[in-house]
Amino acid sequence: MLNTLLLYIEVPVSYVLVGWYKALTFFGLDGSSGWTWALSIVGLVITIRVILIPLFMRQIRSQRAMQLLAPDLKKIQAKYKGKKDQASREAMSRETMELYQKHKTNPFSSCLPLLVQSPIFLALFRVLNTHLKPNPGTTDSYTPFGALTENMVRQANHATIFGASISQSFKDADTTTVKVFAAVLIVAMVATTFLTQRQITMKNMPQSALEGPMAQQQKVLMYMMPFIFVFSGPFFPIGVLIYWTTTNIWSMGQQFYVIKKNPTPGSEAHKVYQERLAAKGKVKAHADGVLSNEPEEPQAPVVTQRAQPQRKNRKRK
To answer: Minimal CA–CA distance to 76: which of 254, 214, 218, 268?
Structure first.
């Protein structure tokens, strides 16, 4: 069942991959070069991430709403702390859902881009790990798949970057050079995954949202995902490592732009944003040091009345 569902994603992935491959070769890149295929994978990332921009913006809004309602969630949790009866659990769930509805968000909205990308990630893994390999029992016999012709599959399998094929992994690398290259990509994938999580969690969250069970769960997730990739990375084809690292870099750039232009109120990023506006004269600072979006009130001009010349009384003759 899963194989059948992934097949419906693998074929479109192959078409996007070949589309970028043809565009790159049209502009003069060598079709048998591993760099051409690597850049085609980068193009696949660009295509997917552009399509996912609406979901990304929804994710940002959901994360912001979840951060802002964190204090209210803590109040509900404190209200029912220690109460384990069925009625209390139901009441707590009901009040929590009402809070989500009030803020028009839910904790699953922030996972939408990741949930959508996961099947694409698995589909690319299967394309590189299965369909770019020689046919069983042969060394140079290939089967076309989707938009990939037999010649393209052969080229992709023989194309190398630093001696490594995009379908190779650290686990099945046969030379030290390939292992080192794959290890560098694994480190890059793990590092960018961690930095992407940390960027949205630490820089764009108010202090109130950095405390409590929800904050602890986000911190666990921030460290757990990279930790998982440390053990799973050696099994990923180099093309998949390139894909995941590239999509992380894209996410970091998107988040940096959103956080810079529209940070969450009360967060460290919002403080920097307000200070930047204050330096440009777009906001004013009060005596207590709090910055306000209200522009400085223009002072009324001081009107001074010009002294009228005094008429001198002439003496009458």
So the answer is: 214
